[in-house]
Amino acid sequence: MIGTYFLFFFLLGFLNTFLPELDLEKYQQTELFNLMDESPLAFILMAVIIAPLLEESMFRTLIKPSFTEIHIFICAVLAFIGLGFIPQEGHSLLKYGLVILSAIIIFLFLQSLKPSRFLRIFRIILYRNYRLIWLLTAALFGLVHIWNYVEGWQFDLILFLLIFPRIIAGYFFGKIKVENGNLIWPITMHAMNNGIVVFFLLPKLLQ
């Protein structure tokens, strides 16, 4: 995974040097940079804690899932949808705190229910097709990160190059879930991955 990051930055530098007409500057992660400038603490919490928890709960829970992990998936999807209804100008920590609290309440309710026949069959299907789910969620994990660079939906070669490391990361996050059978491992690996990026951004964050 780290090797693909080096390849990514090398290729991006090559394109920026020899093909300046591609205009890579229009793909800047403006929203993340704004958050980093406005509230460094919120940016760190978002990158190292909130994003790994929310994203792994959405993309890795259906790989060989337990009933608890299926419930976590449902709550993560509802939390992601809920974020879309909260005004952008709301304080980041308050916004995510409210959504996570709501998700925890829904999760506790789902855990109190006896798994239905449909849920049992759904879990068996997911188990039998875990390799397909693994690869599909890795690709989706990369695709959703397109919105880090552009608004709305568009796709081109540059965007593919930008999200390719995320697809590879999604593959390895899925791999560690398959091999260890517990969601805590991909969450930890994701947090470490983002933490490395935050570490290199510390000089800017501490200005």
TrEMBL record:
Transmembrane segments: 39-55, 67-87, 93-110, 130-147, 153-174, 183-202
Full protein name: CAAX protease self-immunity
UniProt keyword list: Hydrolase, Membrane, Protease, Transmembrane, Transmembrane helix
Record keyword Isomerase present: no
Entry's Gene Ontology molecular function annotations: endopeptidase activity
Chain segments annotated as coiled-coil in the UniProt record: none
GO biological process: CAAX-box protein maturation; proteolysis
Superkingdom of the organism of origin: Bacteria
InterPro entries, sorted: Rce1/LyrA-like_dom
Protein's UniProt keywords contain Transmembrane: yes
Record-annotated CAAX prenyl protease 2/Lysostaphin resistance protein A-like domain positions: 39-195
